[in-house]
Amino acid sequence: MSYASLKGFRDILPEESARWREMERKIHDLMRRYGYGEVRLPMLEATELFARGVGEGTDVVGKEMYSFLDKSDPPESITLRPELTASAVRAYVQHSIAQQSAFTAWYYLGPAFRYEQPQAGRYRQFHTFGIELIGSEHPEADAEVVAAGVDLLAVLGITNFRLRLNSLGMPDERVGYRAALLDYLRGRASELSEESVRRMEGNPLRVLDSKKEQDVRATADAPRLTEFLGAESLEHFERTRALLDAMGIDYVVDPRLVRGLDYYTRTAFEFQGLDLGAQDALGGGGRYDKLIEEVGGKPAPAVGFGFGLERLLLASEAAGASSTAAPEIDAYLIALDDEARRWAVKTTHTLRGAGLRVECDLLRRSMKAQMRDANRKGARFAVIVGSNELAARAAQVKNLGDGSQRDLPFDALVETLCEATPHLPTPDQTSP
Ligand code: HAM
């Protein structure tokens, strides 16, 4: 009997995880520059949180959630988080963060789960990096969030992307628009795709998001949301755009951009990766001024984004960004007999304790095979010990770079190897 991972769930093996760590390190560095605090949120939440927060009418809540009953009596419906904004807001309310400061900026990294049809760039477990700025209703916050997205792509070496921007207005402004759009769509139902016809009564705005050519054609003259926005929403949009212009950030205003989650108000944006296939949304976000009260907090304005780490990796690889080379090691301890093996295990432990990257053979291989392994792993030094070396209390140390060899007393080993190692790992390099 053998098992495979579930459809849409991936293993990340060491060669790939090195690239993940590198990307995560860049993200943590970027967030330090911005001064945002990291939150680590639970993977499971009450189903109700997403149903209310993200919206019953969305695909995410309606079709894609991993929800199940737990073992409590009576059982509670819980859900593997399909996104992290609702969780962040729940934590913000639960811990009364508003009472501690008027403005809060958080970021997070972690998996999310959606029961979608897997394809290139789309998985059932994926990973997101997101930021949430809570407390400011002003366009400065919207602009900072967009700028953080632009900076993220820059540090990852992703240059081939398009930033799409729109204003979705406030819920009361959308009511009028929804009615006008639905009216228009009903008149064109015969020209729309089946999926759009199915969608339009429940969520007419999503029809605008369809990439199907017949939908794009049929909605070319559909009423525009901007025509329904009030003065305040229009001004907010203008000011956000002016700030982006001032920062030299390129974007296209796209009235079709509606996003797939219900909580957005006013600003909405998406970074589209131009090197990706059909699943080309690298990240997206926007303002969500009503969500906090929706999940039981005191009203507070907020804006944020979420990026998919798998897609960021795909895009940075397409951009030819350097992938980390195979990890090299400082020293490889080669033991020639049983007693030398005991010495090698103990000394490996000591050298690792001193901060060196060291390996010894755990397969009791021949000297030749150990030497081959040391070379394959890019060891800088081979430290060879047999019965003669044990008796003399000095190892043969071979520099695998230039082939030179010398005898080194055991008690000088740690110091000499440390001195010969130009970049001993510092805590900053080893932890993200
Ligand atoms: P979202 O657009 O639903 O927004 O997801 C954010 C990003 O996650 C997408 O742009 C995409 O890169 C990635 N993603 C989504 N679904 C999948 C999947 N099945 N497989 C791989 N990657 C995927 C949100 O989740 C919002 N919480 C963003 C936000 C934060 N808005 C305000 N604050």
Give a structural overview.
This protein has about 425 residues and is α+β, with helices and mostly antiparallel strands. It folds into two domains: about 15-170 and about 230-320, Bira Bifunctional Protein, Domain 2 (BirA Bifunctional Protein, domain 2), CATH 3.30.930.10; about 330-420, 3-Layer(aba) Sandwich (Rossmann fold), CATH 3.40.50. Helix content is about 40%, strand content about 20%. The protein is built from 18 helices and 16 strands. The strands form three sheets. The chain has an eight-stranded mixed sheet. It has a five-stranded mixed sheet with strand order 13-12-14-15-16, with helices on both faces. A three-stranded antiparallel sheet has the order 2-4-3. Helix 1 (about 15-35) packs antiparallel against helix 6 (about 140-155) and helix 6 packs parallel to helix 11 (about 230-245). The longest helix is centred in the N-terminal third of the chain and has 21 residues, at about 15-35. The radius of gyration is 28 Å and the shape is elongated. Mean pLDDT is about 95; it is low at about 425-430. Histidyl-adenosine monophosphate binds near residues 128, 260, 282 and 307.
Question: How would you sum up this structure in a few lines?
Answer:
With 432 residues, this protein is an alpha+beta fold.
